[in-house]
Amino acid sequence: MSWTNYHSHTHYSDGKFEPEAYVQQAIAIGLKAYGFSCHSPFEGGHGWNMNPDRLKNYCEEILVLKEKYKSKIQLYLGLEVDFIPDVIGPKSAHILESHLDFTIGSIHYTGTFADGRYCEIDGPHQFFLEGLNKIYGGNVKLMIRTYYQLMREMLEQETPTILGHMDKIKIQNEGGHLFGEDELWYQNEVEKTLDLVKAKGVIIEVNTRGIYKGITIEPYPSKAILEQINAKEIPIMLNSDAHLPGEIDKGFRDTAKLLKNMGFQQMMALVDGKFKAFEFNENGLIF
Ligand SMILES: [Zn+2]
Ligand SMILES: [Zn+2]
Asked: Residue 183 sits in which domain range?
């Protein structure tokens, strides 16, 4: 019985250490498999995106580690890919040419300012508000709808292996001051997106980063969305979105317990080169 994690960053994007430091920690805590998913490189990407010049080295370094540690842990090469129509997506040429084991498709950018800068949903609230006011005329509903619309465009046109932190935009809605997650229009957006996830055979990650960073009480996605995911029998995967070696399995125990209590029976893992479903409990996946 052990954990897996496929959402992780290194110094190639906004993680703190070289890839090997994460591998050594993953081995020390007994992970069965570990995947690297640094932020995708593209021209115009923000500081936390990988510099396009580093992509080749990143892929080579992970492949060397894969071989070096193969008797101790299974390592996989991936990227957390942004989606900006006609700019970057999981099916961009340089992503396909990297021959990745998996992609995590995540929406971090929602809209473009008149001066060409991208509006980020993941950064400081002030920056989000600037986008809300300048791009969406202060219309919160329009902005959130666009966020989910972009997610569906990505799922439809450039289907990733895994959908990253689905409702992360909620971090900008602290205390529900911008919208209610129980409002019908919001639930409709979520439901339409989940139906497409199901139709496309994409895995939804349950991401613990918001919890252990003290930003959210529930994982991404929220419990209400997880209930729908369970009802629709969409496959899930537990990921930590680790930026530090010490974050590799953070929040797993409590979140696995929550999922189990909600009635989830299995979660997906990439082992022996294939995605398969495994039973789990609060101590890990049962291999
Ligand atoms: Zn992300
Ligand atoms: Zn991430």
From this structure: 4-285
Instruction: List, as ranges, residues with CB under 5 A of the ion ligand 1.
Output: 106
Residue 40 sits in a domain whose CATH number is: 3.20.20.140
Pairing assessment for the beta strands 162-163 and 102-105 based on DSSP bridges:
parallel
- Bridge partners, residue 269, by sequence: 276
Query: So what's the pLDDT on residue 10?
Result: 98
Centroid of ligand 1 to alpha carbon of 164 (angstroms): 6
- Tally of domains in the chain: 1
* Helix or strand (DSSP H, E) at 102: strand 102-105
Model pLDDT for residues 113-136, shown as the tens digit of each residue: 999 999 999 999 999 999 999 999
Q: Tell me the backbone φ, ψ of residue 158, rounded to 5 degrees.
A: -135, 45
171 alpha carbon, closest ligand: 1
pLDDT, one tens digit per residue, over 245-279 is: 999 999 999 999 999 999 999 999 999 999 999 99
Q: What mean pLDDT comes out for the span 194-206? A: 98
pLDDT given at position 237? 98
Pairing relation of β-strands 284-285 and 274-281? antiparallel
What number of other Cβ atoms are within 10 A of residue 117's Cβ?
16
Question: What is the 8-class DSSP label of residue 69?
Answer: T
Q: What's the gap in Å between 201 CA and the centre of ligand 2? A: 21
Beta-sheet pairing, 266-271 with 274-281? antiparallel
Tokens coding 125 = 């609230």
pLDDT bracket for residue 13 (50, 70, 90): very high
Cα 82 to middle of ligand 1, angstroms:
8
Q: How far is the CA of 124 from the centre of ligand 2 (A)?
A: 16
> How much distance in Å is there from the Cα of 2 to the middle of ligand 2?
22
